[in-house]
Amino acid sequence: MQEKEGKGQMTNSFIVHGGKKLKGTVQIDGAKNSAVALIPAAILAESQVSIDGLPDISDVHTLYRIIEELGGTVQEDKHTAVIDPSHLVAMPLPNGNVKKLRASYYLMGAMLGRFKKAVIGLPGGCYLGPRPIDQHIKGFVALGAEVTNEQGAIYLRAEKLTGARIYLDVVSVGATINIMLAAVKAEGKTVIENAAKEPEIIDVATLLNNMGANIKGAGTDTIRINGVEKLHGCKHTIIPDRIEAGTFMTLAAACGDGVTIQNIIPEHLEGITAKLHEMGVPIEFGEDSVYIGQAKNLKKVDIKTYSYPGFPTDLQQPLTALMMHAEGSSVITDTIYPDRFKHIAELERMGGRFKLDGRSAVITGPVSLKGASVKASDLRAGAALVIAALTAESETEITGIEHIERGYTNIIEKLSNIGADIEKVTTADVAAQ
């Protein structure tokens, strides 16, 4: 890492020299959106849980620290963590690490399921507009918990948890997983209706079942859980990260000259694959890999984000960077997070042409992008800026990279290995002096 001299607060950024064609092989890591739920799920066991394939990202390490704060131990070895929750205590977590990531809300369901009580500070992470946890709370209350908000922390208390029939008013991955975590040791049967169907939910249910839970229907809109008294340790391998895979597929389409992406599950990528096909991107699947050929004369495409198996909201921002190079006007409508367009102002600084209209953005192309100083406002916005910078003339500086590093393991190394000119630099923030 290059370090520039100066005083004051230090700022990390990516410096990207665009215009290079990328070629080679990229290895996808374990799913971030699984990892942040699997680690809290391990709290429910009474002996060691070993999880293999975990991504080396800040959110994962923050959860390790939280487990240790609660009295557990975590042994790390590359991408494997052995979590021993046998000596955990129901310690309140109103502040500190718990506020560093949004997915800390899974500690609510896990702590409630194990101890019948929890105090969890309202979580942080990427700001994507209001993302209420009312459906999570509705589920906890249905199971018998009393839930209050006191001084910025959620307090959960229950004499006992009893199975219930819970209908989610909106399809929510977080609420589906959180209710599963709370319900696996509840007395009797719980039914979650209008459940989310994402692969990450199946991954968490697989871990819990390996621990001794009785969960049926994960991956469908109705999940049935028969409560059990105890859960034990097990070994589990996380699924590949479909969002990281989709990001690299998009990046390869934008500036690749033949890129192979390994460690994928093709069925998890059907939404992004369909749209890249529609744009004219050459795609060939192997058993657990995909080859993206050089894309020429990209066609415009319209996209609406939906819950799985629809087009994922997490990929609409990266795809925006590709759409700028397509002929004509493409439209993206985000039905999940309508505020998820903060990256557009930054892309306009590089020469992008956009029109925002409520939940939709119209992207007119093709354009020739020029390097600029831009800032990532959230994780997937950062991915969009990286893709745009790789296709732009001259140098782009991307700040706010802590968001990017929350979700993409070793992104500098992976991009450099396929020919990108990108480095991480540290500079002194003069304004902070």
Automatic annotation (TrEMBL):
<keyword id="KW-0961">Cell wall biogenesis/degradation</keyword>
<keyword id="KW-0670">Pyruvate</keyword>
<feature type="domain" description="Enolpyruvate transferase">
    <location>
        <begin position="17"/>
        <end position="415"/>
    </location>
</feature>
<dbReference type="GO" id="GO:0009252">
    <property type="term" value="P:peptidoglycan biosynthetic process"/>
</dbReference>
<feature type="binding site">
    <location>
        <position position="314"/>
    </location>
    <ligand>
        <name>UDP-N-acetyl-alpha-D-glucosamine</name>
    </ligand>
</feature>
<comment type="similarity">
    <text>Belongs to the EPSP synthase family. MurA subfamily.</text>
</comment>
<feature type="modified residue" description="2-(S-cysteinyl)pyruvic acid O-phosphothioketal">
    <location>
        <position position="126"/>
    </location>
</feature>
<keyword id="KW-0573">Peptidoglycan synthesis</keyword>
<feature type="binding site">
    <location>
        <position position="336"/>
    </location>
    <ligand>
        <name>UDP-N-acetyl-alpha-D-glucosamine</name>
    </ligand>
</feature>
<protein>
    <recommendedName>
        <fullName>UDP-N-acetylglucosamine 1-carboxyvinyltransferase</fullName>
        <ecNumber>2.5.1.7</ecNumber>
    </recommendedName>
</protein>
<feature type="active site" description="Proton donor">
    <location>
        <position position="126"/>
    </location>
</feature>
<dbReference type="InterPro" id="IPR005750">
    <property type="entry name" value="UDP_GlcNAc_COvinyl_MurA"/>
</dbReference>
<dbReference type="GO" id="GO:0005737">
    <property type="term" value="C:cytoplasm"/>
</dbReference>
<keyword id="KW-0808">Transferase</keyword>
<dbReference type="GO" id="GO:0051301">
    <property type="term" value="P:cell division"/>
</dbReference>
<feature type="binding site">
    <location>
        <position position="102"/>
    </location>
    <ligand>
        <name>UDP-N-acetyl-alpha-D-glucosamine</name>
    </ligand>
</feature>
<dbReference type="InterPro" id="IPR013792">
    <property type="entry name" value="RNA3'P_cycl/enolpyr_Trfase_a/b"/>
</dbReference>
<dbReference type="InterPro" id="IPR001986">
    <property type="entry name" value="Enolpyruvate_Tfrase_dom"/>
</dbReference>
<dbReference type="GO" id="GO:0008360">
    <property type="term" value="P:regulation of cell shape"/>
</dbReference>
<keyword id="KW-0132">Cell division</keyword>
<dbReference type="GO" id="GO:0019277">
    <property type="term" value="P:UDP-N-acetylgalactosamine biosynthetic process"/>
</dbReference>
<comment type="function">
    <text>Cell wall formation. Adds enolpyruvyl to UDP-N-acetylglucosamine.</text>
</comment>
<dbReference type="GO" id="GO:0071555">
    <property type="term" value="P:cell wall organization"/>
</dbReference>
<dbReference type="Pfam" id="PF00275">
    <property type="entry name" value="EPSP_synthase"/>
</dbReference>
<comment type="pathway">
    <text>Cell wall biogenesis; peptidoglycan biosynthesis.</text>
</comment>
<dbReference type="InterPro" id="IPR050068">
    <property type="entry name" value="MurA_subfamily"/>
</dbReference>
<feature type="binding site">
    <location>
        <begin position="32"/>
        <end position="33"/>
    </location>
    <ligand>
        <name>phosphoenolpyruvate</name>
    </ligand>
</feature>
<feature type="binding site">
    <location>
        <begin position="131"/>
        <end position="135"/>
    </location>
    <ligand>
        <name>UDP-N-acetyl-alpha-D-glucosamine</name>
    </ligand>
</feature>
<dbReference type="InterPro" id="IPR036968">
    <property type="entry name" value="Enolpyruvate_Tfrase_sf"/>
</dbReference>
<keyword id="KW-0963">Cytoplasm</keyword>
<dbReference type="GO" id="GO:0008760">
    <property type="term" value="F:UDP-N-acetylglucosamine 1-carboxyvinyltransferase activity"/>
</dbReference>
<keyword id="KW-0131">Cell cycle</keyword>
<keyword id="KW-0133">Cell shape</keyword>
